[in-house]
Amino acid sequence: MAHAQVRDVPRTTDAPARAPQPFFPPVAAAGPRPPSTPPTFLDVLHHRYCGRLLIASVTGRLSLGMVPVALILAAQADGHSLASASLLAALYGIAPALGLPLLGRLADQRGLLLPCYLGAATVASALATLALAGTTHLPLAALRVALAGAGCPPLEGALRSLWPSVLPDAAHVRTAYTLDSSTQQIVYATGPALTIAIATWLSPAAALALAATVTVAGTLAFAATPPARTWRAAPRRRERLGVLRPPAMRPLMCSLVFLGATVGALDVATIAAADRQDASWLAGTLPAAFSAAGLLGGVLFARFQPTTAPRPRHLMLLGAAYTACWLLLLTPLPAPAVLLLTLLPGTVFVPLLTVASLTVTALTPPGTSTEAVGWTSSAIRLGLAGGTALAGPLNGHFTVLLTAVAGCALLLSARTAPAPV
Predict the structure, then answer these.
(1) Which of 347, 363, 265 is nearest to 304 (CA)?
(2) Cβ neighbours, 10 Å, residue 363
(3) How far is CA 404 from the centre of its chain?
């Protein structure tokens, strides 16, 4: 198969263990020449199983965008303050940071089905109980929220582990990463908007029940595909640090924590901005606009991305651009201007996330592909939780968001890839 000759993506089929590839791998003499233009999203989706896997994965992850907003609305409906409600939502962000690497490691060791089924069952039971019992008793509600977060099925890691086995070469895999990062914005655009609509029409409890339903439906559809049923990771060496063994991986993971904090702070900042400006429509439309701009940024990046693996300077440039795009939001602005200016960082977010994810893949030791994406998701989720938790007590001011962006850019300016060998 053509994908077996690719040098800049890790193997996901059974193969003898080998040393991790450098970030700038040499091109094999007999390997296929890179295409003159990158493959498009449609080129990726035309390959067998790709569309089905992507749709199922996004559906199963939709609850990640629904639950934080549903928890805030449910806690406020039960009489809790915004600060308490945001801390409860932050707990939901912390729990996947603990569960996803463990479920990812289980997937690398035992296949994808067991962690997917186990995670879906845990999430469904925890969210259903939370919808029925409410958040009046905060300690019990916090326990259920923690279970719902920790049990999130590792669908993102599973999908990225499957890309090399269903696509022909590294160029298609890079475009698939961009496609995946772009469609993730559907989670954070559709999720909050759908939650607010269901909570307004029915109740926050109904939104939590719907989140449980889509998690189970998406996970079962994903696990039913032949690639997911048959996939096995490459053999791995037992090491104390595992995925985090490459030194360049650690500053990169820290930068992803700050990147996630920008989105977490934005969720609270939009609700606070809507209250300050007496514009309730801003609470749902601003995150949706940010995510819609992310889709546009992903499409543009897929069209104009380099035909080879990204380099460290791309991370630094994208990090600086992302920081600059948030500066104007520090000034007092009317609600329509805030909405329009949020489109700018949204456009940069997906390219930045894509290049960071490709860098993580290049640094990942063999046999740890699903766990590596679990650590990536954990870093972002920790940032989401931290941004949400800090933005609540500080009344959702955009200063928290800009501070997180600056930290991300600073860490991306560090050496996030090994020197060529």
Answers:
(1) 347
(2) 24
(3) 17
Measured CA to CA, the distance from residue 337 to residue 54 in angstroms comes to 34
- Angle (CA) 69-217-94 rounded to 5° is 40
The single-letter DSSP state of residue 112 is: S
Which of 378, 222, 307, 358 has its CA nearest to residue 35? Answer: 307
Model confidence at 89: pLDDT above 60: yes
C-beta of residue 334 within 8 angstroms of C-beta of residue 277: yes
The predicted-structure confidence for 272-294, as pLDDT tens digits, reads as follows 777 777 777 777 777 778 878 88
* Number of other residues whose CB lies within 10 A of the CB of residue 330: 12
Helix and strand totals (H; E) in the chain? 16, 0
Tokens for 377?
Answer: 């998701």
Give me the DSSP letters along 34-60: PPSSPPPHHHHHTSTTHHHHHHHHHHH
Give the residue from 255, 254, 270, 281 showing the smallest Cα distance to 398.
270
Q: Pick from 241, 291, 298, 296: which is nearest to 270 by CA?
A: 291
Which amino acid makes up residue 301? F
Given a cut of 50, is residue 17 above it in pLDDT?
no
C-alpha distance across the termini of the chain, in Å = 27
What would the pLDDT profile of 129-170 be if each residue is shown by its tens digit?
888 888 888 888 889 899 998 899 999 889 988 988 899 888
What is the secondary structure of 179-201 as a DSSP string? HHHHHHHHHHHHHHHHHHHHHHH
